[in-house]
Write a structure and sequence with these properties.
This protein has four domains: about 70 residues, Wheat Germ Agglutinin (Isolectin 2), domain 1 (2-Layer Sandwich), CATH 3.30.60; about 50 residues, 2-Layer Sandwich (Wheat Germ Agglutinin (Isolectin 2), domain 1), CATH 3.30.60; about 170 residues, Probable inorganic polyphosphate/atp-NAD kinase, domain 1 (Rossmann fold, 3-Layer(aba) Sandwich), CATH 3.40.50.10330; about 60 residues, no CATH class. About 40% of the residues lie in helices and about 15% in strands. Bound molecules: zinc ion (4 copies). Its EC number is 2.7.1.107.
Amino acid sequence: MEGDRRTSPPTQSLLPDGHLVLWTLCSVLLPVFITFWCSLQRSRRQLHRRDIFRKSKHGWRDTDLFSHPTYCCVCAQHILQGAFCDCCGLRVDEGCLKRADKRFPCKEIMLKNDSRAADAMPHHWIRGNVPLCSYCVVCKQQCGSQPKLCDYRCIWCQKTVHDECMKSSLKNEKCDFGEFKNLIIPPGYLTSINQMRKTKKTDYEALASKFGKQWTPLIILANSRSGTNMGEGLLGEFRILLNPVQVFDVTKTPPIKALQLCTLLPYRSVRVLVCGGDGTVGWVLDAVDEMKIKGQEKYIPQVAVLPLGTGNDLSNTLGWGTGYAGEIPVAQVLRNVMEADGIKLDRWKVQVTNKGYYNLRKPKEFTMNNYFSIGPDALMALNFHAHREKAPSLFSSRILNKVCGIK
Ligand SMILES: [Zn+2]
Ligand SMILES: [Zn+2]
Ligand SMILES: [Zn+2]
Ligand SMILES: [Zn+2]
């Protein structure tokens, strides 16, 4: 009897135990399933977005948080995250991306319509998200100050105008390319060059004379890996202010290829702005030397530097500063380049040969920039260089490198 009593409780507790197992399984598996399903949906959305990015003529980039109050260019809603085009500046939320892509054209780097004259191009207005502190070209009052999608900006000349001040005459007005017209390569110019190349004409001087002697087109060669990836953001800012065709990422297009654009521009007119450290500047200067060897001496550009890397000794000596971390706006950098005077840099090709009896080793060739620097700067650079040579892996961060330099 006693034995029967002892065996009965387990049969009664089987059911609650089963429930417990079921509930435990549910509480463990359900969150796992939900997380898995969410990540599947997210990756599917990402794939879809990347597909649109790849096919699009805009230079779309994702962002988790816009730095300024932003409104979607399609649905006009206030948005915190979404995508922006780093050529024309359109901003959109994820849901409206496809519609924005179809509805709005991006900056035309070359005119499609050949009948238009090379120097006559109307403004290209886009609505909303005009920069803070911009002023209307018509009434001279502040623009874009209302918390909604309002007012227009021309993506070439950067002029802004109120919704109510926008007239049809302004819509058809010729764009003068604004403040940086002397640095921008107009799309019409490239269309004319293209037509001339078809007829095998290479006298671009007459064509360029329309833009005047002060036209010194600028080519941007930025290293997107320099300055803890600051180069990436800078590339976008330059594309917004200039023609995207004149902005290159040297990690994707090597300087020697990018500099071939100089051969389509008037002789001795081009300026190049190198955004990177001494290494990138050296790379570009080597490419300039190569142009000389190729017999393209008359196309050689003047080189300016925006120091982004760690070693910016050459840039400092040339008067471009020791490092750029966004202290001045990109527009001011362009103004500095416009106002800069050119100087000649003493460059040497050094050949090291083995003088031994059995001269089997190939002679080594180096390029040397000869400049003079004295005082604590030079000492610091020398000490830093010596330390980096000993342990290169310890000097991969720019901020850390600066701290070591101060020490
Ligand atoms: Zn939207
Ligand atoms: Zn665009
Ligand atoms: Zn314009
Ligand atoms: Zn106005």
